[in-house]
Specification:
Elements lengths: L13 H11 L3 H17 L1 H5 L1 E7 L2 E6 L2 H9 L1 H12 L6 E4 L1
Parallel strand pairs: 2-3
Antiparallel strand pairs: 1-2
Helix pairs in contact: 2-5
Organism: Algoriphagus formosus
Protein name: DUF721 domain-containing protein
Pfam families: DciA
Length: about 100
Amino acid sequence: MNNFTGRKKDAAPLEEAFQELLKAYRLEGKFREKSLIHDWSSLVGKTIGDRTQSVFIRDKKLFVKITSGPVKREIQMNKSKILRLIEERYGADVIEDLVCL
């Protein structure tokens, strides 16, 4: 039998270990921002995702460049719903506002 003396007795699941690492290096906020940008299309759906040219975050504001006028109006009308969805999934402190470009 191999004896692994360098390991903890109870190995932490990978996700938990990753979260501890992010916390230790104070990267939680940046990781959630990058996750939000990456997940934008799946968050808002295929129609909006296909008409999104770029997504970025600056000063706790999510900037979304949309190529379609009607889709841009749809986002503006549902802004509070989208912000609530983002808050539920990524936390309240990730972004404070959504700006359509």
